[in-house]
Amino acid sequence: MFKALLLEKDDAGFRASVTELDEARLPAADVLVAPEYSTLNYKDGLALTNRAPVVRNWPMVPGIDGAGTVLESSHPDWKPGDRFVHNGWGVGETHWGCLAQRARLKGDWLVRLPAAFTPRQAMAIGTAGYTAMLCVLALERHGLHPGSGEVLVTGASGGVGSVAIALLARLGHRVVAASGKPQSAGYLQTLGAAAVIDRAELAAAGKPLQKERWAAVVDAVGSHTLANALAQTRYGGVVAACGLAQGMDLPSSVAPFILRGVTLAGVDSVMAPRALREQAWARLASDLDPALLETMVEEVALDGAVAAAGRLMAGQVQGRVVVRI
């Protein structure tokens, strides 16, 4: 038996509660693991509050991220005692996840926990921070380097934004953070933001082409925010899009692409190939300051995850929520 956060939905309604489950109920996969820490990402928040149809199979153990120890394995790359980190792959949506003391996962989904990180630190990074690193890699592939110019980070006080700011600033970029939380300005500057602007400057409909400002953008917001960021990106610049906090729409035009040669780079973390994941985690180990990472973290126990998810969806969370299993 093991403890897990179980989501149930039936004629009686939706329920989310910590309960005892039999290990025999775990789905089939070739590696049995003991998650020590998990975390709450936006998608987890949607699942735990039943705000969107994220969960595809019921009942479901949520938790798209996990870090801990391998207990049993029939996969050639993994043996008992190995330390792992897991992100995405539909876990917590179609396959039971890591907000539990036990999980059965596919070995091909796992990445070795970098020696630089504890499981807690890996989950302070989580899918949000790993996605931020994927965005940085995308910007670099398109030629961004220190000295290129200002880099805008939208959704700055969230998980992706927080880690993106810390990474970009440490790599030598001048970072401008867009946030709707004036009280977070000091926090964002501590992470490395050179300036903080009100997200309202980007959130409403704007002209297809605007004054050129940004050499690059990390956008976790979408909708009008992404459209305005594109319209303000300098000639030859690049925008990495990874989120939809404002919406899935993109009310823009082709003008930034055909008149300024702007590149819109889509960033997916869920199904990213293993080699790219390993590259991202290796770069996080070398480029992210663990002490700065700690300033982003709020830790809750497993039985506090549902309440924390409610605060996350209400916009009351700054940085990252780590769940102690």
Which terms would index this structure?
325 residues; alpha/beta; Quinone Oxidoreductase, Chain A, domain 1; Rossmann fold; 2 domains; seven-stranded mixed sheet; 15 strands; 30% helix
How would you summarize what this structure contains?
The protein is of the alpha/beta class and about 325 residues long. The chain is about 30% helix and about 25% strand.
Oligomer: single chain
Instruction: Write the H/E string, N to C.
Output: EEEHEEEEHEHEHEHEHEHEHHEHE
CATH superfamily of the largest domain: Medium-chain alcohol dehydrogenases, catalytic domain
- What is the top-level CATH class of the largest domain? Alpha Beta
Low-pLDDT sequence parts: none
Q: Shape from CA axes?
A: globular
CA-atom Rg in angstroms:
20 Å
Give the amount of beta strand, in percent: 25-35%
Helix content: 25-40%
CATH architectural label of the largest domain: Alpha-Beta Complex
